[in-house]
From TrEMBL:
Its cofactor is (R)-lipoate. Pfam families: 2-oxoacid_dh, Biotin_lipoyl, E3_binding. InterPro entries: 2-oxoA_DH_lipoyl-BS, 2-oxoacid_DH_actylTfrase, 2-oxoacid_DH_E2_comp, Biotin_lipoyl, CAT-like_dom_sf, E3-bd_dom_sf, PSBD, Single_hybrid_motif. One of its GO terms (cellular component) is cytoplasm. Transmembrane segments: none annotated. One of its GO terms (molecular function) is acetyltransferase activity. Its EC number is 2.3.1.-. It comes from the Bacteria. This is Dihydrolipoamide acetyltransferase component of pyruvate dehydrogenase complex. Residues 99-136 form the Peripheral subunit-binding (PSBD) domain. It is an enzyme of class 2 (transferase). Belongs to the 2-oxoacid dehydrogenase family.
Length: 379
């Protein structure tokens, strides 16, 4: 028998609200299966089972705020063939998680509404608060007052303030504890642009690549040659990561930033990586990320080119040891074969932990990214 505890989805997370159980005592679950929905300062996240077994007890009621590390359930892992067979015979298959926004889930919880029978009008059919109000399941004003009384941080302004405090805490810790060093280089993206334009010309819009996919793939491949930038510094020691999971910085519309992981970014084809990036962005903004996506990142890649920022020097997100910054690609004069020509250029930056690597290693990494982007067909 093992205890399942409230997970930490970020270095600054102190507690989470268990919004919904997707299992009940007696249910057999497999490793990676979604068992609960946890609402954090960065949205609703699907909690996965980290081990296969049978749910024994649920210790926390939906709607409860639980500190990180506090037990929320117990899991029986020593399953005999007979018990597995009995469980399969007695327990119906687990239902698919109902897609709903965090606010809609809270409204449903406090008004005792079953979301299963509702049709959603949000992204990909997700149920939003308006769907409950328009169906007259709840009265808008009283429900909103009830929600605000029970959970004041549900208001947009308070959520922004909470997220800013969480980010401030993590970044202050980073600047206090991590001796940063910074490097930057300018990269000619013209070869990558020409290759990508040729690749996209006969593809439908949903299958076309964006430059960001090529940049992330080049970073991931360069990390295979520079493992000292990919991992975690904990308890006074560097622990290199065995896999490359890029934390992709996603702005949460009008406020906040989260960095879910692009799993095995170095091993994915460009079309698959592009699809995963689109999927992560969509699910991040509607509140449908999995717990592994929020905890697995081994390095962060942050870009602000869409905001017109030419150069970005990031702050390392502990316990990671590096962050890569992507600037805005711009058409500029560049010397090619002794002649000045207009080329698409962008600034690539690296902030790294001097306890783990040095400027020579960081420069080698930037050079490798540059080399890969000059031969984009090899990505």
């Amino acid at each position: 028998m093992i205890e399942l505890t409230m997970p930490s989805f970020s270095a600054d997370m102190e507690s989470g609200i268990l919004t919904e159980w997707l299992v009940k005592p007696g249910d057999a679950v497999k490793k990676g299966e979604i068992i609960a929905v946890i609402e954090t300062q960065k949205g609703a996240i699907d909690m996965e089972a980290f081990q296969s077994g049978i749910i024994h007890t649920l210790r926390v009621e939906p709607g409860s705020s639980v500190p990180v590390g506090h037990p929320i359930a117990t899991l029986e892992t020593e399953i005999t063939a007979d018990s597995t067979a009995d469980s399969a015979a007695q327990v119906p298959p687990q239902t698919t998680r109902i897609k709903a926004s965090p606010l809609a889930r809270q409204l449903a919880l406090h008004n005792h509404i079953d979301l299963a029978g509702l049709n959603g009008s949000g992204p990909e059919g997700a149920i939003v608060a308006h769907d409950l109000e328009s169906q007259k399941f709840i009265d808008k004003t009283p429900a909103t007052e009830t929600l605000n009384h029970t959970k004041p941080q549900a208001t947009g302004r308070d959520e922004q303030q909470m997220m800013r405090r969480a980010i401030a805490s993590a970044m202050s810790r980073s600047k206090r504890e991590i001796p940063h060093y910074y490097l930057a280089t300018t990269i000619d993206l013209q070869p990558a642009l020409e290759w990508m334009t040729h690749y996209n010309h006969d593809k439908p819009p949903e299958a076309q690549l964006l430059m960001t996919a090529l940049l992330h793939k080049a970073v991931a491949l360069a990390l295979t040659r520079n493992p000292e930038l990919n991992g975690f510094y904990t308890q006074g020691h560097f622990q290199p990561a065995s896999e490359i999971h890029l934390g992709m910085a996603i702005s949460m519309r009008n406020w906040g930033l989260i960095t879910p992981a692009l799993h095995h970014a170095d091993q994915q084809s460009l079309p698959d990586l592009m699809q995963q990036m689109r999927d992560l962005t969509l699910r991040a903004r509607r509140g449908g990320l999995r717990s592994s996506e929020m905890t697995d990142a081994t390095i962060t890649v942050s870009g602000m080119g869409d905001r017109g920022v030419e150069t970005l020097f990031g702050i390392i997100y502990p316990p990671q040891v590096a962050i890569v910054g992507l600037g805005k690609p711009m058409l500029q004069p560049w010397v090619v074969d002794g002649k000045v020509r207009p080329r698409l250029l962008f600034n690539l930056t690296l902030a790294a932990d001097h306890r783990v690597s040095d400027g020579h290693q960081g420069g080698r990494f930037l050079g490798k990214v540059n080399k890969l982007l000059q031969n984009p067909a090899g990505l």
